Structures are given as structure tokens and as C-alpha cells.
Amino acid sequence: MKQITDIPIKQLSNGIAGHYAHGSSTTLGYISIKKDSVLGLHHHVHEQITYILEGQLDMIIGGENYSLTAGMFHIIPSNTPHSAFAATDCKVIDVFSPVREDYR
Question: Structure pTM?
Fold first, then answer.
């Protein structure tokens, strides 16, 4: 049994880094996002569930604006364009299906 933070950190972009555990069909991420960090508009084949542990993450998902705070989540369907801006420092859990091979 391991702690998620025992997994080596993967830097996704400036101010965004996570620890990722991979099963046979899903990836679990524990991500730290620094205030004012931006994840530009993108999409991927993976369905994604984003759950906010701490902070405020403002997202545009499929052209709609969402302000997610601690305890909130959003399901992002496969191939849906989305972006994010950290209004505060954030801790986030992301779950992806299928596995994010690019995050290994």
C-alpha cells in the first residue's frame, strides 16, 4: 500500500503538477495547481472527472463557464474542449478513463 504522494511527481505545465496512479482502465491524479496557473483549451479521448479538494478552479467546459470550489466536481465527457484557471492555490483529484498513458 502506498500514499499517492509516494508516486513521482509529473509536471504538466508551469504551476501544475500531479501524482498519477494507473489501473487497467483508469488513471487517478492528485494535482497541485498554483494560483493564477492556466491550463489552455484542449480535449482528449478520456472521460474526466475533476473533484476540487481545496481552492477555486474556474473552468470552461464545452463552452460553458464553471467556478468549482472545495467539494464540487464536474464530469467532462470524452473529446469535450475544456480549460482551467486557478483563482487560488488548488488541490484537485482527476480521474480519467481510459488510462492516461501520456501521464505514466
Answer: 0.95
